[in-house]
Task: inverse folding
């Protein structure tokens, strides 16, 4: 009973909190629509200091500078794509958490589908072949039957 | 014969994985190739460090037909301290102007740092906001760029220039570019 209560209390504390965000109130834009766009863009941009976090998540100084930069570009009237292109021009595709589909990333994007396709093909071929294989073996000859009977009776030679 | 070959499959897969790991694990994930290689240096004008005696520098200084080096540093950056003797040595050779980009630093601390460790820079520009650093694609100090005579970024070294990095990477490229190499 106490265990359940403790668990419930823990969940009550932890669940509504959600992941902590690094965005400070003073960075936020007054316009909620622009701010929402800034948040969406920030979630797609990698923090280059702590590479597996987005700039929206990261507390690094550079992430903060980039968050502010994204908001400035938006305020200046850039589209979302223009803002992203602005950052990519300086830091390369690596700054995108979701790599773009292009020649050099084709293996990355098509690889899993190709491997899964090959796997399915292998399974299909395997079962087809098994079904095509002769189901019943040739019947025993009279000589084999006689030897088998002898073995079963227990007086093998 | 056909069915026997399948037993070689795990060995083959292992081979492929081994090659991936051999290449992948010897790379430093912290080093990100610069998007600016062979692109013109960004347009900027940087003021000198406030209270200092030197002048700042700008894009125009990098387009004077000479190969130049731009070193991004800050007084709060520990590896910068480690590499600084090499930067001073390069500057002391007198073969290229070495510009310092003082990244997100407090002026008085930057000046004290340069006083203590020696200031071999041709000029130092103060990038207090870090905005010029972003234009250069700086993501961690120290970083060092080699810019050719036309103001085009040709090389970027991420991290401190220590050990034989100056002899191995920086000097050969400077000589190559100065010799009219493309």
Result:
């Amino acid at each position: 009973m106490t265990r359940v209560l403790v668990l419930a209390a823990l969940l009550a504390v932890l669940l509504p909190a959600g992941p902590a965000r690094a965005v400070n109130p003073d960075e936020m834009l007054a316009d909620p629509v622009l701010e929402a766009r800034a948040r969406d863009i920030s979630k797609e941009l990698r923090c280059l200091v702590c590479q597996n976090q987005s700039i929206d998540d990261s507390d690094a100084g550079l992430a903060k500078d980039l968050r502010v930069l994204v908001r400035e570009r938006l305020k200046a009237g850039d589209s979302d794509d223009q803002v992203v292109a602005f950052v990519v021009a300086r830091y390369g595709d690596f700054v995108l958490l979701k790599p773009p589909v292009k020649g050099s990333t084709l293996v990355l994007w098509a690889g899993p589908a190709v491997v899964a396709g090959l796997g399915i093909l292998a399974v299909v071929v395997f079962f087809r072949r098994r079904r095509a294989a002769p189901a019943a073996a040739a019947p025993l000859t009279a000589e084999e039957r006689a030897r088998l009977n002898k073995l079963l009776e227990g007086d093998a030679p | 014969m056909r069915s026997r070959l399948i037993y070689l499959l795990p060995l083959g897969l292992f081979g492929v994985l081994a090659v991936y790991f051999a290449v992948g694990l010897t790379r430093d994930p912290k080093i990100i190739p610069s998007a600016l290689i062979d692109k013109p240096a960004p347009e900027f004008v940087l003021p000198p460090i406030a209270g200092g005696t030197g002048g700042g520098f700008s894009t125009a200084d990098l387009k004077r037909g000479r190969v130049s080096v731009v070193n991004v540093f800050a007084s709060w950056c520990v590896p910068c301290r480690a590499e600084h003797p090499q930067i001073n040595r390069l500057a002391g050779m007198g073969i290229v102007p070495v510009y310092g980009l003082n990244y997100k630093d407090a002026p008085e601390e930057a000046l004290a740092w340069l006083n203590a460790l020696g200031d071999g820079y041709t000029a130092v520009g103060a990038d207090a906001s870090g905005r010029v650093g972003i234009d250069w694609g700086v993501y961690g100090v120290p970083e060092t760029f080699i810019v050719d005579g036309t103001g085009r970024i040709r090389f970027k070294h991420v991290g401190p220039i220590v050990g034989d990095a100056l002899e191995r990477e920086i000097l050969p490229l400077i000589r190559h570019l100065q010799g009219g190499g493309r």
Summary: Strands of chain B lie at 45-46, 57-58, 68-73, 98-103, 123-127, 143-147, 153-158. The first strand of chain B starts at residue 45 and ends at 46. The radius of gyration of chain B is 21 Å. Helices of chain B lie at 2-5, 9-24, 78-93, 107-117, 131-135, 165-178.
